Amino acid sequence: MDSAAPSVTDRADVTAAGPVLGLVTSLVDAADWLYDHWYLFALAIAVFWSVGEWVVRRLAGKASAERMALELVSNRHFDPSLEEIFRRGVQLARASTAMPWWAPRRSKAVQIRLRADGSAPLRYRVEGPAGGERLLSITPFGPDITVNRARPIVDKPRTHTVRAEFILRGKLISPLRVVPLNPDPLQPLVDAVADLRAELGDLAEIRLDIQRAPKWVLRARRLQLLSAARRSERRESQRAARWLRQDASGIEDSLGFQLQQLLSDNPGSGNSRRLVMPPVPRRVEPAEALGKLAEDDHLVRVQLLVMCASNTEGRAEARLAQLQAAFDVFGGRSRWAMRGWRLGPWRFGADHWPTRRGFARRWNLGHCQPPRANWVRLDELCGLLKPPTTHCRLPVLAGDLPTFAFGECELLLQGIYRGPDGRERLVATYAEETLFEVGVGKAGGGKTERALAQAIGWAHAGGGLIFVDPHRDSWPRATPFLAHDTLMPRIALIDLNGLGPNPRISSWNPLAMHQGQTAHEVVEAIADAYASALAWDDATAPRALTILTAALAVLVAVNEAACQAGQPEGQATIFHVRALLTDAGFRKAALTTVAGRLDEETLSWWKSVFPTLPPEAFAVVLNPIARLAANPVTRAFLGQPVGVYNIRAAMDSKMIVWICPGGNGPTDRLLTALLARDLLRAARSRRDTPEEKRVPFRPYFDELITLTGAAPETIAAMFEDLRKYRCHIHGMTQLLARLPAAVRLSLVQNASTLATTAGSKSAVAPITAEWGDSPSPDRVATMDRFEHYVSMNVHGRRIGPIQLRGPHLDDVFADQARPREVPALERAAQANAGALPLDQLTDRAAQQLDRVVAFLADHSPAAVHLTKEENEWT
C-alpha cells in the first residue's frame, strides 16, 4: 500500500470538516456581501424604524386626543402641608397610567401647565388621560382649592417666540434642592412673569410632564450606574496602587535611604526591593452608587418645556432668561439647565433644527419623551405640584384690577399702583361692585383727597353724588376740577357756614309735601332724626316722642292740604311746632282744618290726652327747635315753606350736591341728623321704581365721627339697606374705634372696599385684623404719607390688600383743572341750590306763620285770629 495514500480516518476528517468549512465560507461571503451592500441593510433598518415610529405616533396621537384638562384655583388661605402635596404627586403619577393598553408610553403622562398671559398672575392647569379625571378632580388640598373643568386654550400667533427644554445637569443620582414652602417655591416663577404685559402680546408657559418610570428602563439604568461605579472604583484603586509604587520607588532611590543602608548592620538587605501591596478596590454600596434611584417608590421621569412669546422684539428672550434664573432656585448638586449648546452669541436648542419639530409635536400633543437624565422623586417636585399658596406674593395685573379711564362710567378710581417693573397705572374697581367703601387714616394722610378724586372722576363720567363735609375744605379743593360747562347745570352747593356779610343760603322744609312725599314717612324721618340726635328712645323719653310725633302729624297734614289746595306757600315749617303746642287758637284751626286727614287715634290723643299735659312737658320738645331758630342760618334754611333741596330728585337726575353743615355743635348735630334721615327716607322711597331703572347714586361722608355723632343709627341703616336702592355709601374717618358700635359693625361687614393710610398701631389694628394681619399693623403704621393699603372686590373676588399711592388731584386731573371758571361754578352751584341772601330768607321765615294762619283761616270752618304778640316767637 502506498504510504502517501490517505487513510480512512483522514478521509472521514475531511468529510466532517466540509460542512463546517462551507458554513464559515458562507458566513464570510454574507459578511462580505453586507459590507459591500451596507446601504441596503441600513435602508431596511430605517424603513422598519420609520414604520414603527409612524405607528407609535398615530397611536399616541389618538390617545392624546382623549385627554382632559382641569384648572385649579387657590384662595388666599391655601396653605398645604408637605404630606398633602406629596399625596397629590402620587395621584398625578397614578393618573398618568389611566390609558388604554395599546397607548404608547409617550402618551402616558400627566401634564402640569403654569401659564401667564395677562388673565391671571399664574394659571395652574392639570392635563392628563380622560380616564384619570375622577382621580385628579378630587384633591387632598381641601376646600381651599377649586377644581374646574378647563376648556382648550387657543393662542393667537405672536411675532416673536422662543422655546426651551430643561434637563437635569450634575450628578444623575443627586436630588434637587429641597425648597421650603414658605416662601412659596413658585414665587421665583411668579416674579419672573410679574411684569408681563398682555397689551404687548406677552405670554409665558411652563409645562411639566410627569411619567411613571418603566421598570425595565430603571433596572437598566441601575445596572449602568453600578457598573460605572465599579469601574470608577477599580480605576481609583489602580491609580492609588500606581502612586503607591511610585512613592515606594522614590523612597528607595533617594540619597537618604542609600546612606541609611550603608550605615546599617545588614547592608545586604538593601539589595532587594520592598514588596508593595496594592490597595483592594472598595466594595460599591448600591445605596451610595444609585442615590435617589435606589428605591422604586415614587420615582418618576419628567419633561420640562418652556415657551415665551411676545409681539415686541426682545421681550420673549428676556422672559425666558428670567424663567431660567427662576429655576436656579431648585438647583443643588443637580440643577435644571437648558438643553442645547452654545457657539459664541448663538444658542442651538429647541428653537432650531433638528429638535424644533420634535419640540412642537410634544408641545401640541402633550407627549412625554424625557431625556435620559430626568429622573426625580416626587418629593423633589413638591414646589410644582400645587397652585400658589398663601405665602406667594401675586402681582396685580390689568385683568385682575382694571385700569382707570377718565370718563368711563363703569369704573371708580382707587389709586396709583406701582407694578413689579416700576410702571405706575391708575387702577379702579367696577362701579356696580363697589357697594360701600370705608377709608381710615390719620389727618392729612390723604383719605379725603382720594375720595375727592374718586368723586370727581365719577361726576365727569355722568354719575350723581352727594358730598357731605362738615368742614367745607373739600369744596374749594374740588371746584377747579368741576368747573366745566357740562357739569355746572348738575352741581348744587348747600353751604350753611354763613361766610361773608350777607351769605347766600339754600332752603329746605323737612315737612313740605309739594314734592310728593308720603306723609307718614316724613313724620317718621323727622321724629327718628330728633330721637337719634337727642338720644331719645321709648324708655328714656316716651312722652317727648309722643308729643313730637303728634305735632308733626298735624303739621304734615296741614302742608298736604295746602299743596292740594294749590297754595304751597302756606305750608308750615318745623318752627311751627311751638305754635301748635302753645297757641290754642292756632291749634284749634289746624286740627279743624285737617281733622279729616288724621286717623282716629291721633285725633283722640289731641282731644283727650293733650289737655292733661302740663306746660313744662313741652320744653324738652321745644328747646332743640328754639336753638335752631336762634341761629339765623338754620332759621333761614329750615324756615321756608317751599324748599329747593330735594335729595330724591337729585338722586334721579344725577345731581352733584355738596353739603357743608357748618359745625359739630348740638344744633349742627340736629340739622345733620335731619339731613341724614331724609337721605335714608329718600333712598328707601325708590322702591316705587323698578330696580333696573334706579339711577346709581353715591353719598360721600367725610368725617364720619362727626356725622355719626348726630345720627348713628341712621348711618348704620344706610350701610345696611341702601345697596338695595343703588345708593352706595363712601365713608371716611380718622379712627374706626371712635365710631358707634352699630355703625362700625355695619360698615366693616358690608364694605366692598376697605382702605387705610398710615396711623398709630392701635388705630389701624381693626382694619388689618379684617385682613388677617397681613399686612401687619407695624407695616401699615410706618407707611409714607398718601400711601394706602386697599382691599377691593373685582369680579366677585377680593383683590388685595395691596399698596396704592393716593391720587393727587393736581396730578391725576391736571388736564381738567379750570381755575378761571371757579367763580362761574360758584354762581351756578348756588343758583341750582336756590340760594338767596340770608336777610331775604330771614324776613320770609319771620312772616311764614302769618301765611300759614291765613291759609288755615281760608280753609277752616272757624276763623282763627292770632295777635301779633303770639307770632313774635318766630
What are the segments in which pLDDT stays under 50 over at least 5 consecutive residues? 863-874
The chain-level structural class is alpha+beta
Helix content range: 40-55%
Q: Mean pLDDT score, rounded?
A: 86
The beta-strand count equals: 24
Nutshell version of this structure?
Helix content is 42%, strand content 16%.
Topology, please?
Elements: H1 8-36, H2 38-64, E1 67-74, H3 82-95, E2 110-116, E3 123-129, H4 133-137, E4 145-149, E5 160-170, H5 187-192, E6 203-212, H6 215-252, H7 255-263, H8 286-290, E7 299-310, H9 315-327, E8 334-338, E9 341-343, E10 346-348, H10 356-365, E11 375-377, E12 411-418, E13 424-430, E14 437-440, H11 447-460, E15 464-468, H12 474-482, E16 491-495, E17 504-505, H13 519-534, H14 542-564, H15 577-582, H16 584-594, H17 600-609, H18 619-630, H19 632-638, H20 647-652, E18 656-660, H21 666-684, E19 697-701, H22 704-710, H23 712-721, E20 730-733, H24 741-750, E21 753-756, H25 761-770, H26 777-781, E22 787-794, E23 797-805, H27 809-812, H28 822-832, E24 836-837, H29 838-846, H30 848-859, H31 868-871
Parallel strand pairs: 14-20, 14-21, 15-18, 15-19, 16-18, 19-20
Antiparallel strand pairs: 1-3, 1-4, 2-3, 2-6, 5-7, 5-8, 6-7, 7-11, 9-10, 12-13, 17-24, 21-22, 22-23
Textual characterization of the structure:
Helices cover about 40% and strands about 15% of the residues. The protein is of the alpha+beta class and about 850 residues long. The strands form five sheets. Strands 1, 2, 3, 4, 5, 6, 7, 8 and 11 form a nine-stranded antiparallel β-sheet that branches. It has a nine-stranded mixed β-sheet with strand order 16-18-15-19-20-14-21-22-23, with helices on both faces. A hairpin with a 2-residue loop joins strand 9 and strand 10 (about 345-350). Helix 16 packs across helix 30 (about 850-860) and helix 21 packs across helix 22. The longest helix has about 40 residues, at about 215-250. The termini are far apart. The relative contact order is 0.10. Residues about 865-874 have low confidence and may be disordered.
